[in-house]
Specification:
The chain is of the alpha/beta class and 483 residues long. It has helices spanning 30-41, 49-55, 57-67, 79-90, 103-113, 130-141, 156-161, 172-180, 195-202, 216-220, 226-253, 255-259, 268-271, 276-294, 299-317, 325-344, 351-379, 394-417, 434-450, 458-462, 466-482, and strands at residues 4-6, 12-14, 17-19, 95-102, 118-122, 147-150, 164-168, 187-189. It folds into 2 domains: 4-189, HAD superfamily/HAD-like (Rossmann fold, 3-Layer(aba) Sandwich), CATH 3.40.50.1000; 195-482, Tetracycline Repressor, domain 2 (Orthogonal Bundle). The longest helix is centred in the last third of the chain and has 29 residues, at 351-379.
């Protein structure tokens, strides 16, 4: 379709270009993004949403926008489309933002990008979508031809009335209806990953390594029963399902904060590659599957799984923003896996294992937080993660973490010296060879964190790092020699 049209005076000018916001210029839905931020920052206001929805879509959008100042600078813009719009603006083409989003948000987006000639949006009374958007565009443009870029079926009336239609990450429904009406888009701006791949990434399967802790109680008790091992594997499966569900909750609530992070902005929800609606369905399914499978294990396991999920959700909604409390809770979640593994296999947890786990996992939780702060400090990025920490806390956090690491070593050394170890090992003195490997690994983790080279959970890191695996094999050999 032609981009140039003749004016009444006979001069040629570029046809006005109109673009939708949600799902088009931005890969996500800004209303859903705002609702997620509202759930995290003002959860009590969620109680007012049903009443506002009853008043209509436009008042509902206005209410949400008034209570949430969405960070428009870090929205997941469609970069291909954004580059095209910037090029067209440089050519002197008038560009209009025509969106069903509330006008307050739409104007903030327009002000940030700086190339829109005019903004047409919902005004708190009228919801500017479909035919109403088409009418508004015709009135604003004086009836002249225009080009329009959309992404879903609500854009269909506007695309049918436009002289030129383009699409950005079009839905399957829109493609089907465009073909049915004989509308052929002149350009397509595709920038998204496959939903299935994005969902798998959001489940964080690499983090399932932490759930291997449920296998430790029967292994450390030297109980090699096939039945108990099968129970431990089922417990591992339950924790993987439940943990992935809580990861999705965490990512949805942190969607805006993640977009400000150089690394976390690539997460599926933050990047706009995965729709929150898919995440909500997946959360329900994963939790149902996890707790349904738990019914085949002792009731005590279901209790610990429930405590884990409840603690994780409370952490995601509130506790993660309280300095030090967050790392204590994280270390507790590691220890919960041990308790759940003991419950699933009816294996008692010794006071030695409990004490060792508390100090070790506290150190690993702190090193994770330390690594995040160190990475921000080295990159010169301003601290905006809402964790409750200051950049000046970094040395004190290092002290807390390293002290806890060596406390774990001391507990292990005392265990080796106790009478309890003689009931499980014929050569307990050989276990002393494990101590230098523990010290080496913990010091290495903290050294990498100080260098800004530890960019993942330390437990998951241990299962992918070559040096850690070598030390792990060495420790396993020592344990076998001590039995």
């Amino acid at each position: 379709m032609p981009q140039i049209q003749q004016t009444e005076s006979g001069t040629a000018q570029l046809m006005p270009l109109c673009v939708d916001l949600d799902g088009t210029l931005v890969k996500s839905d800004t209303l859903i993004d705002s609702l997620l931020v509202l759930a995290r920052t003002h959860p009590l206001l969620l109680l007012r949403l049903p009443g506002m929805a009853f008043r209509g879509k436009a008042p509902f959008k206005a209410f949400v926008t008034e209570n949430v100042a969405l960070d428009v600078a870090h929205l997941p813009y469609n970069r291909k489309l954004l580059q095209f719009l910037q090029q067209e603006n440089a050519r002197g083409r008038q560009i209009y933002l025509a969106t069903g989003a509330d006008t307050q948000l739409a104007r903030r987006v327009a002000d940030h990008l700086g190339f829109f000639h005019q903004v047409l949006a919902s005004d708190g009374t009228h919801n500017l979508t479909g035919s109403r958007k088409l009418l508004s565009l015709r009135q604003s443009l004086g009836g002249i031809d225009f080009a329009y870029i959309g992404n879903d079926t609500p854009d269909l009336p506007v695309m049918a009335g436009a002289a030129e239609s383009m699409v950005a990450n079009p839905s399957r429904r829109l493609r089907t209806k465009l073909r049915a009406q004989g509308i052929v888009p002149s350009r397509a701006f595709e920038e998204r990953s496959q939903p299935l791949n994005s969902l798998v990434k959001a489940l964080r399967p690499h983090q399932w390594a932490k759930n291997l802790l449920v296998l430790l109680p029967p292994l450390l008790a030297h109980n090699h029963s096939v039945r108990l091992f099968a129970s431990a594997l089922l417990a591992f499966f339950c924790f993987c399902a439940a943990a992935s569900g809580t990861y999705l909750v965490n990512d949805l609530l942190d969607i805006e904060a993640d977009r400000r992070s150089p690394k976390k902005r690539l997460r599926p929800f933050a990047s706009g590659d995965l729709a929150p609606s898919i995440g909500l369905v997946a959360i329900v399914l994963l939790l149902v599957i996890g707790f349904a499978a738990a019914q085949f294990l002792p009731a005590a396991f279901s209790f610990w799984l429930l405590v884990y999920v409840g603690s994780t959700l409370f952490y995601s909604f509130y506790l993660k923003r309280i300095a030090l409390v967050d790392v204590v809770v994280l270390s507790g979640l590691y220890t919960l896996r041990l308790l759940a593994g003991g419950a699933a296999t009816t294996t008692p947890i010794s006071h030695w294992l409990a004490g060792f786990a508390i100090f070790l996992f506290l150190s690993l939780a702190i090193v994770k937080r330390f690594a995040e702060l160190e990475s921000l400090r080295m990159s010169g990025t301003q601290l905006k993660n809402g964790r409750g920490y200051l950049m000046s806390d970094i040395e004190q956090i290092r002290a807390f973490g390293t002290a806890s690491a060596f406390a774990a070593v001391v507990v292990f050394a005392n265990y080796i010296s106790s009478q309890d170890v003689t009931t499980l090992y014929h050569h307990p003195q050989r276990l002393w060879l494990i101590v230098p490997f523990m010290v080496l690994w913990l010091c290495r983790v903290w050294l990498l964190a100080a260098r800004g080279e530890l960019d993942e959970d330390p437990v998951a890191f241990a299962l992918t790092d070559a040096a850690s695996l070598v030390m792990g094999v060495a420790v396993a050999i020592i344990v076998l020699l001590a039995i």
